[in-house]
Amino acid sequence: MKKLFLSFAVVALAGTANAQVQFNPQVGLNYQTLTNPPAGATYGARAGFLLGTDFRFGNRAYFQPGVFIGRNNTFFSYNDSTLAQGNIVRTNLKMKALVGYRIIDTYQFDMRFGIGPTYDVLLSTDVKNSENIAWNGGDFNKGSWNIDAALGFDMGHFTLEPGVSFGLSRAFNDNLNVQDIDSRYISYGLTIGFNFGDDDKND
What we know:
Layout: H1 2-15, E1 21-34, E2 41-58, E3 61-78, E4 85-105, E5 109-128, E6 143-155, E7 158-167, E8 185-194, E9 196-197
Antiparallel strand pairs: 1-2, 1-8, 1-9, 2-3, 3-4, 4-5, 5-6, 6-7, 7-8
């Protein structure tokens, strides 16, 4: 799968070699929760942050690879008990390869939509305030495939992009105490940043 991801990126870059190029450093907030909690448990999204950059190669249609580092926070509770609750705090490196289309494409304002695969590399996990929960950092998968979608707005050199990421991989690994938990990540994010590069508009 990783080789397929890289091959897709190389082919897309080759196809846009002579097109408009933009470089877009961004910072933002994210909210991450999980699906399919175990019996008696609930999950809830908490605020985190992300920082990184992406590139856009293309004109009306474009390819958007990027790399971001994120700090995500998810609250969990068993049977609504204050004695069995805590926070899953994880740091990950997100690599993305979206394709998109500028729905509105003018000199001063763009509105665009992008979708595509992403891969999160888990850098660290800390299960906080959970003395009565057996989970630990070794119970989580080291990587996660996702499908991301984003709606972007460009105003001159400023960019704003709300997006969502749907996890395709299980959050937990095959350790005995978590092997039956089929939870997957869902993340909502909002970034702001700057556009640098070719401002010419060529349909």
